[in-house]
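Blinded run. Sample ID left blank on purpose so nobody reads anything into the name before looking at the predicted structure. Input follows.
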Amino acid sequence: MSDIISLTAAELGAAIKAGETSSEEATAAYLGRIDAVDDQIGAFLHVGRESALEQARAVDARIAAGEELGPLAGVPVAHKDVFSTKDMPTTAASKILEGWRPPYDATVTARLREAGMVILGKTNMDEFAMGSSTENSAYQVTRNPWDTGRIPGGSSGGSSAAVAAFEAPLATGTDTGGSIRQPAAVCGLVGAKPTYGGSSRYGMIAFASSLDTPGPFARNVLDAALLHEAFSGHDPHDSTSIDAPVPPVVEAARSGEIEGLRVGVVKELDSDGFQAGVRQRFHESLELLESLGAKIVEVSCPSFDAALSAYYLIAPSECSSNLARFDAMRYGLRVGDDGTRSAEEVMSLTRAQGFGPEVKRRIMLGTYALSSGYYDAYYGSAQQVRTLIKRDFDAAFGSVDVLVSPTTPTTAFPIGERTEDPMAMYLADLCTIPTNLAGNAALSVPCGLAPEDNLPVGLQIMAPALADDRTYRVAAAVERALADRDGALLARSPYAVGA
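Blinded prediction complete.
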C-alpha cells in the first residue's frame, strides 16, 4: 500500500496506464489510508467507498479495452464539499444542507469524471467557505497533519489536510480570498488559484460570485498543473467563464526555466509584522530565484493596504445575496413547519438554526453594506478600491513578469487561538486577497520550514490574468532548487508515508 501512496499523481497515472498497478488497487490503498488516519485528521465529511471502487473498476475496464485516457485516469482525488455531486451529499459543511444530494454534478465534478479520476469523497471546509481555519464547519474540526493541535488553513482545510496526510494524492478546493493558497502554505503543499473565469463555477455553491475560483491541491507542482488542466477551460453553463484556451500550465511545470524572468517583490506584502521565520524563508526564496537567473525588483502597490477592508465589504455583500436562496422552502433544512407558522416564521427559524455564527456575521455585514443609505459609502467605495488594486497590478505587470510575497503572514496557528477574534482570523488572508479582487492568477509553493516552529512556509507567486503558466514555471524552479538543497519537504511531516 505505501508504495502506491508514495507515488506522485503523475507517476501513479503512468503506472495505471502501463498496467503496473490498477486504479482499483490504488483506490483501495487510499481508502485504507483514510481508514487508518482520518480519525486523527478529520479531513473527510463523506467517504464514498463503494462508488469510488466502482469508478476505479470502470476506468480499469476502459484501459483494458485499449481506450486512450488522460494522464490522471484512475488516480484518486478528494473533492471539496462545495461542489455538487449527484452520487454523494453536498453540504458546504452547513447544517442547512445536511444530507442534501444534488440532482446534477458541478462542471468541475463532471470534468474529473471525464478525465477518469476517482472521487474518494467530500472534504471538510469552513461553512459556505467562510473562514481561514476550517473551524467554522458545522460538523467537525480538521487538523493539520504537521501538528494536529494546529489548523490546516481554510476554507479548503479538509482538502489540504487530506493531501498532506497522504489520504489522497490530489484534491480540489475553492479560493475566494485565499482559501486554496493559505491552506496549501500551512500544510506544505502546492495550491493554485486560477485566473477568475478560467475554471467553471457552475454547480459550485456560491459564497461571493465575483471572487470564487476552483483550483487544485497537490504535493508537487506538476501534479497541481495536471489537475488544473483537467478541470479548467470554457464552460457555457457559467456566464463568467472565459472562452480561451487553458494556459500551458503542464508544459510550464515541466520546464521551470526562469532565466531572465523579472520578479517583483510587493513592498506592501513584506511586513515587519509577519512571523520572523516566514520572512526569513521568503527572503531566502528571493535569493534562490536570483541565483537561478531571475531579476528581483521591488515594486509598490499602495492600494493593497486597503484590500482587506474592501474584501470584507464586497464578499459579505455577495454572500448576503447568494445565501438568501437557503430559505427552507425548496430544499435543505426546514425548522418549525408544524402547520401553525407562516412561511416567514419557518424561514427565520430555519436560518437561525441552520447557519453558524461566522455565516450569520457575514450575512449581517453584507446586508448592512447593501442597505439604503449605506450602499455608496460601503459597497460602492469598496468596489472603487477594487479598481485601484487592479490598476496597481496592471502597473506592476508593466515592469515585471510575476509578483511574489509570503503566502500568509504566519505558519499554522493553534486550533482555537483566533476563534474569538474575527479580525485576527481575517488577517490570515492579508497577502492572498488582492489577487482575488483583481481576478489574476496566483499559486503557493512550499519554500521551507520556519525555524521557530518547524512548520511549512509558502511562497506566493502572482501573474496577470490568463498567465497562469508563469506561476507554475516559477514554482517548478523553486521546488527543484529546494529539493536539491533540502530534500523533499513533506518527508519531514509526521504523516508522510514512511515517516
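Unblinding after everyone has recorded impressions. The chain has 17 helices and eleven strands.
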